[in-house]
Amino acid sequence: MPTEQMGAVDLHGGDVGVTPRWMVGVSLVIGFGLIFFLGMVGGVMKAAQGNLVHLSPSTFYALLTLHGDGMISTVVLLTAVAHWYFLRRLLNLRVEVLVFAVLAIVWGLVAAAVAILIGGFGPGWTFLYPLPFIGNTWPVWSTGLFFFGVLFVGIGFAIFCLDILAGIIREYGVLNGLALDTIFPRLRRADGKVAPPTVIAATMVSIDGILTAAAGTVLVVDLLAHWAMPHFPVDPLWIKNLTYFFGHTIANLTIYLSAGVIYAALPHYTGRPWHTNRVYAISWTTSLLFVPWAWPHHLYMDFVQAPWLQIFGEASTYIATIPAAVVTIFGALLLVYRSEMRWRIGSTFFMAGLLGWLVGGVAAMIDATIPFNEVLHNTLWVPAHFHTYLLGGVFLFVIGFASYFAGDDAPPTRLTKTFEWVFFIGMIGFLAMFYAGGIEGVPRREAVQPVPGPLLAVIGTAFAAVLLIGMTGLLIEIFRRGQRNGATHEREVT
Amino acid sequence: MTALQRRWPLPVGLAVAALVFGPLFTGPSVPPLLIHHMEHSLILLLAGLLGIAYARRHPRLYGDPTWLLGVIVLATFSVVLMLPDIYSQVDAYPVLHTLLHLGFVTVGYFGGYMAERYSPRAGTAWTMLVVMMGVITASGFGAPPPHV
Amino acid sequence: MVPIAGKQLVILVLWLALSTIVVIAFSWVVSSTKRPVPVGDVQPGGYRLRRLWGWFYGTLLVAAFAVTLWTVPYAWAQGSTGKPALVVHVYAHQFAFTMPKKLPSGTRIEFLVTSLDVNHDMGIYSPQGELLGQVQAMPDYTNVFFFTFPKPGRYVIRCLELCGAGHSYMFQPLQVYAPAPASTLGGRSA
Prior knowledge:
heterotrimer, A: mainly alpha, Cytochrome C Oxidase, Chain A, globular, disordered N terminus, disordered C terminus, B: mainly alpha
């Protein structure tokens, strides 16, 4: 319907025969399938580190790359889709655009998977220049294909961000999308309508997401240029900064996408609404400004880096935690405190995810403190903190969302409680082994670890198996229960 | 529409023309890479604004999401045009340099136009993307390490 | 098992303590839902608590930031201690470090670390296996890293950045001997 009047554009149109609900559901199924498969890959790597199975180092690093690139892309896909599910009514978004974004991300994942599984590409998902090009064991085509894969994941995320930002500008404008009208009366709308917290989160994510996608595009074009023309000069320090700018920020934004989901979904269980006020405006503006500046904490051990970046990186990392700790997580606790909370799978996982966010955040802040980073950088402490953050935070939010989305609103049964316990015990044990390894100075990303790495890996493998069993059982239960309770129902979002 | 809203494309267009045809008057020149990237980003941005302005005059065209694909392709292509290898080929020849600038104008104009046609206000989001890419590019795209 | 001491002990205690506080706070909030009250009853107190928590947390961050500024390992923060430094060049490459096999303990050493191919990372492990410090090795750049070996013994230098198929095997011993008179040291004094 390209010829309609601007005011009359029907943005909900089902032109391509895809309903929003179907699209979100299909994306969840794809995402959970990928998580299960990539989780198994992670388990195999742990088993190899524990000498339970044998993998050649090249195979190990290829699987490491697959696990990292795949998990990050999948988590971006899942959180973006979950956030979009709530946003689409608030901002009048079109499902066709989500189809484009999901297809681009999935295509990027397929390209990367081919490069890794057939080509054996394995410099880790951070693909630090010049490792993809020097002294490696994979063919030249796999390097190029992998970068095209990364480009497509970035493009998918850019499409998502551009579309929601356009939606925010149409509906509220950028400033009021951050609810700055609660601070500056001059910005106030005649009808007194203020952006709900989910939209505020979307404003921050879309702007920082566009910045991230911009960095990712420049990064990948630079690497592809070097791939096509080996004489093309690359500054290793510059590209390292750019790589972490892209990689850190895109991974970090998944938690902010999740926060938007929490804002919309948690009130469903507590019966208390989540209101916008000036504290939210200040806090999300702070996140918007400082989250993109946290990346230098990945380069603390590059002593040649400009001192102001090192110091500013630490300060920004610290400042970026304030909105999360003081506003979002505290706000969630206040929303739940002495409320008539209905404890369902959804609400349990939202609360557990907030806990994981905080615990992983504490570990992240310790690591982002320069003198501590000296003994934690590139040890297992790093995967410890980001697994707490992504597995124990973001992924729990996504499971909570799946339960909400599937309409699984019945009280927990003995079976679901058992699966929850199995899942949580597996997860905590699995994460604890990472932390123990980090404290013991065991390096991350090693096919063969020094002691006590192998022992910890054996225990970690056992917990990972428990985790996967609990996760699978729980997800099957969620979808079974959701279907029984009528998956066709649509809830109103306030 | 106020007079300002109607007329702003005129000075913007003049600025683009000055930037694009500058090499014809300044002759062969090799500006520092950072400045050069910034200059090209500015052309992209201003041309993008013109594209948005044109799209806004025809609001009945709004609403087709397939334009988004063109937007993304052009954004990526704009970085390809910024390869310093291309700069070094054209710097010595003012006419070629001007042609490169026209390439940036084309990418910027159609990027802004397509974005705005895909959705009202998406042109603004696109210009944000272009500005951000310009800043990142200027920070060292295609630059060798300092002492090599 | 590697003994947990020094910074690692501080980190472990700090993380366990903070995580325990977090878990207790969450348990308290979760159990409070057994005694529900209207939202109006908890909101004013909650907002007061949030303000207090915000100030407390902000102060904590400023203090932590100030402390770390004094303890960063960079040359610009450490260069003025005035002690003579032994200068040692380290060239990392796939999959070994080209550097002296023996170094003195108790001497402030200025490591000039670079890489001949991809990114590496020089991690220094004590004879007991504790990670004492590290610095990245990057092609085209030289990282200046000051380090003093606390006591003699057989240390291990290990690569801590994924650098290719042989990454896990990129480690080598470093013999640290008791300090000798300065005049007999190899290398030049800074």
